[in-house]
Design brief:
Blueprint: H1 27-30, H2 33-46, E1 64-72, E2 77-86, H3 88-94, H4 96-101, H5 105-116, H6 120-138, E3 143-145, H7 156-162, H8 167-184
Parallel strand pairs: 2-3
Antiparallel strand pairs: 1-2
Helix pairs in contact: 3-5, 5-6
């Protein structure tokens, strides 16, 4: 149900906006370039180099690696659930806020509606709800749990070392990065 509207089955394609206080702290930044390349290639191969949501492929990059996160509101923890292969269009929907900054929000909205079989109105309401959740989650700091990288054969010692970034340190880092980008005029912040 979206804003009181029944939409049927759970959507195939969802929006996963990362809270602002978690920006710039992703798996790629937490592992070595060699580990990241190995992880993403494993994800691509496991998916047959096809999007795990729509089955499609991009023209320049057939698929991209996306991190699926779960948020434990009570504990204030951002948990890595798994990595999935997405075509660029589905990946853009996952990060629709970034799509908006890049001037591609309408394309992302159309793809969201098409994949889920929704009208434009239902897609718009879903997007509004996703941004409301994002605003709420962005109001707090989150600890980062990347212990599930063990499933991708990343050294557990590295996970323990990088996965324990304090929420306060991450929030200060994000605020500093956003501030620097704003001063340089590198896009607006939502």
């Amino acid at each position: 149900m979206i804003d009181g509207m029944e939409v049927g089955d759970p959507p195939r394609l969802t929006i996963e906006l990362v809270p602002q206080t978690c920006w710039f702290s992703n798996v790629r930044d937490q592992v070595s370039p060699q580990d990241w390349d190995r992880i993403r290639r494993q994800v691509y191969e496991n998916a047959g180099r096809r999007c795990e949501v729509c089955g499609g492929r991009g023209s320049r990059h057939p698929v991209e690696c996306h991190e699926v996160w779960e948020y434990d509101e009570a504990a204030g923890a951002q948990h890595l659930v798994r990595m999935i292969a997405l075509c660029p269009a589905c990946h853009e929907v996952k990060h629709i806020g970034l799509a908006g900054i890049r001037g591609r929000a309408e394309l992302a909205r159309e793809h969201l509606a098409q994949v889920n079989g929704w009208s434009s109105d239902v897609a718009e309401r879903y997007i509004q709800e996703a941004f409301a959740t994002w605003r709420s989650r962005s109001a707090r700091a989150w600890s980062l749990d990347i212990s599930n990288l063990a499933a991708y054969e990343v050294d557990p010692a590295l996970i323990a070392e990088t996965g324990e970034a304090s929420a306060g340190d991450r929030a200060r880092s994000v605020a500093s990065t956003v501030d620097q980008r704003a001063r340089r005029g590198q896009g607006r912040v939502l």
